[in-house]
Design a protein that fits this description.
The chain has 287 residues and is an alpha/beta fold. It folds into two domains: 57 residues, Helicase, Ruva Protein, domain 3 (Orthogonal Bundle); 201 residues, 3-Layer(aba) Sandwich (Rossmann fold). The protein is built from ten helices and nine strands. The strands form two sheets. A seven-stranded mixed β-sheet has the order 5-4-3-6-7-9-8, sandwiched between helices. The protein has a two-stranded antiparallel ribbon with strand order 1-2. A hairpin with a 5-residue loop joins strand 8 and strand 9. Helix 2 runs antiparallel to helix 4.
Length: 287
């Protein structure tokens, strides 16, 4: 693909469209030109400056080679937020918004609550919850310092840094001795060696955020086993998982003594989020 200074916006998109998806080409060109989508449709005959053309060609080539569009533009929309993402973080996906919806349904507006997001990555879940529940005190953990740096930057961008506390460490380790009203997590749940790990965007995302043991449930087992001592009586644990793992996750939750165990399907009818509630009987440390 070659572009010279005499090529217009429409010419560039047409040439890129022979190599990558047209929608991706539009996103890349808007990113390079730092223009809104509305500008593009009103200036399809505008000429691309040489330095912008060169940058566009580079990004098109990288996308054609399989790099995720989110990493190329450094952004991904999630919930109502525009989040920075890097190869140090998992790319937020629309399906995870179901986890946020289910969490918000269990956090009453106008009531203080303590919430934990474990394995926060870019901060997507924690920041979405904090944006909708101003009285919630949210703690977000991740073992990757690089991911936490991205999450903190996203919190600052959206004016949420004071509402979310970021801590480094593996799962519940950074919150030892603390209890929460709700814990949410989108942990790695793909089986080690699954062929999907070598396909599409997954090839470029951090492996530690994707796969977890022979059946993909190692991280979920750790979370379920540890959650009760970190939840107040009646506290909720919400877990995203693979479409074929719901029965196994529900079994783990019931075996650990959770009540009200259920699974919520996504918009395409695939099992996506399983959850359970700790018993309200007996004494427990509050917050």
């Amino acid at each position: 693909m070659t572009i010279n200074i005499e090529h217009s916006v429409s010419d560039c998109l047409a040439r890129a469209g022979s190599r990558i998806d047209e929608a991706d080409a539009v996103l890349l060109l808007l990113h390079v030109l730092e223009r809104p989508r509305a500008w593009l449709y009103a200036h399809r005959d505008a000429v691309i400056a040489p330095q912008d053309a060169a940058r566009f060609v580079e990004l098109v080539s990288r996308r054609a080679a399989g790099e995720p569009i989110a990493y190329l533009v450094g952004r991904r929309g999630f919930w109502t937020l525009d989040l920075a993402v890097t190869p140090d973080t998992l790319i937020p996906r629309p399906g995870t918004e179901l986890l946020v919806e289910q969490a918000l349904a269990r956090i009453a507006p106008g009531v203080p609550a303590r919430v934990a997001d474990l394995g926060t990555g870019s901060g997507a879940i924690a920041l979405a919850i904090a944006s909708e529940r101003p009285l919630a005190r949210v703690v977000a953990t991740d073992r990757s310092e690089a991911a936490l740096a991205v999450a903190r930057a996203n919190a600052s961008t959206h004016g949420l840094h004071g509402r979310v506390e970021f801590r480094a460490g593996d799962w519940f380790a950074p919150v030892a001795g603390e209890r929460f009203d709700l814990v949410a997590s989108n942990p790695p749940y793909i089986a080690d060696g699954d062929p999907h790990l070598g396909q599409g965007d997954l090839r470029h995302e951090p492996a530690s955020a994707l796969s977890s043991g022979a059946d993909g449930l190692d991280a979920i087992r750790v979370l379920v086993a540890s959650a009760p001592v970190h939840l107040v009586p009646g506290g909720w644990l919400l877990l995203e998982h693979g479409f074929d793992q719901a029965r196994a996750v529900r079994s783990l939750l019931r075996a650990r003594g959770f009540d009200g165990v259920s699974t919520v399907p996504d918009l395409e009818g695939r099992d996506r989020v399983s959850l359970g509630r700790t018993s309200t009987a007996g004494a427990g440390a509050g917050w």
